[in-house]
Amino acid sequence: MPTKPSLPEVVAALLRRDPVVLCTRLALTHEGVARLPIPGRRKFWVVSDPECLHRILVTDATQFDKGGPIYRIIADALGEDGLFTVNDEATWRLLRQIMNPAFRRAELRTVMELTADAWRSRMDAWDLRGPIELFSELKLLSVEVLMRHALGSAVDTAELTKLALPVFDGMAGRIFLPRWAPGASGYRKAIAALDGRVRSIISARRDQGTEAGDLLGQLMTATDPQTGHRLSDRQVRDQVFTLLMAGFDSTATVLSWACVLMAERGDQLDRLRTEVANVCADRTPTLEDLPRLVTAQALLQESLRLHPAFPMFFRNVKAETQLGKHRLAVGDQIIIAPYATHRDPARWPGPAGFDSGRFADRLDHEQRAAYLPFGEGKRKCIGEDMATMTGLLILAMLAQRFTAFRRPDGHSGQAARYAMTRPSRDNARLILTPIDE
After folding, report:
1. CA separation (Å) from 333 to 71, 314, 320?
2. Domain boundaries along the sequence of the chain
3. CATH pick for 7-36+45-434 out of 3.40.50.2300, 3.40.50.2020, 2.40.50.140, 1.10.630.10
4. pLDDT by residue, tens only, the chain of 437 residues
5. Which keywords accompany this UniProt record (predicted)?
């Protein structure tokens, strides 16, 4: 007679299958703070309560850092000195200062132009006789635009995408697997291959001796105001890896889910098409047009609520603290779960259902506190404005070309896989009806 699996074994299996679902259920059934039943000295906590999250990310942020075993796994791929992983406060401030100009409004205008040109080219190449994998198309677009903006026009984005895919798709699995689990050797080789290519790009730029105006050039020429030292090649490499991770499929995930939702709600696409026609007719939307695309904004915001780009992120407990009814010890790990926060029925009526109308009016105080698709506090995502603006542009350009989205028979579009982001398992395969049919 087979032995009944223990609770930790069941939890481990569920974590590997879909950690987002498990963590959401735990958080929402335990008043927003729940312990994962995993054996060991170190405890793992899932937190979705907005007040607790505000403490962790804002008011008491110094008590929670990016140390511990979860970030060790992430840092194994991204490096310890990237903007996403760095723990040292002074280094973080320097990196943020260096990278901020690349995300200012003047630069975002350039990104909008890059995005429009690249997206138009991708759509022109589609064979509309069959379904289009929108997630795959949007991911390739995101990497191309981000790398053109960050590394210049000479970079082979197709090669970088191919090398980055096994690193970032595999990262989530390594978080919920022991280090010795099968596949660890292959994963290390994937990191080494991407690392080698990025370092060769940095080395080639140094050999050129030119100060290009892209982000890579800024990183290589910036100096620490206190020491006068420039960033090392390793620090520059870590920033490139961070940018790749942050933009690899985050925006693509949200936008592909938005398209799946529009396939289910044809009226939403009709409203979007009407709005885009009124605002900019058939010309490419500009930065100045975006504030008037209120339907597109509500659609994007609701998609971010239902499917935040990063449904979970992490913190390490630096000082013993109380969260809700629970006492957390130094070294405990916190899984911050905005996916659960965004689906709390106490704050969001009909939380699992799509309703962009909830963003047509101002959110109430509790909803604003429970909406954090880009995080919160000083380490909030630096790319929020870029992701929002390019997202609105992409949705508007789709509305200018297509009159209907439809899912192929036999594809629900709802199954998902966790890979730091949580895209649909079928890559958002949709049949698109062009405007001239």
Report:
1. 10, 7, 12
2. 7-36+45-434
3. 1.10.630.10
4. 556 556 565 566 666 678 899 999 999 999 999 999 887 778 999 999 999 999 999 999 999 999 988 888 888 888 899 998 999 888 899 899 888 888 887 788 989 999 999 999 999 999 999 999 999 999 989 988 888 888 876 778 788 888 888 887 777 767 766 555 666 788 889 999 999 999 998 888 888 765 667 788 888 888 877 788 888 888 999 998 888 887 778 999 999 999 999 998 889 999 999 999 999 999 999 999 999 999 999 999 999 999 999 999 999 999 999 999 999 999 999 999 999 999 999 999 999 999 999 998 788 999 999 999 999 999 999 989 999 999 999 999 999 999 999 998 766 566 777 878 899 888 999 999 999 86
5. Heme, Iron, Metal-binding, Monooxygenase, Oxidoreductase
Looking up tokens 């001239």 gives 436
Kindly report the pTM of this predicted structure: 0.91
Encoding tokens for residue 197?
């290519």
What three-state secondary structure class fits 255? helix
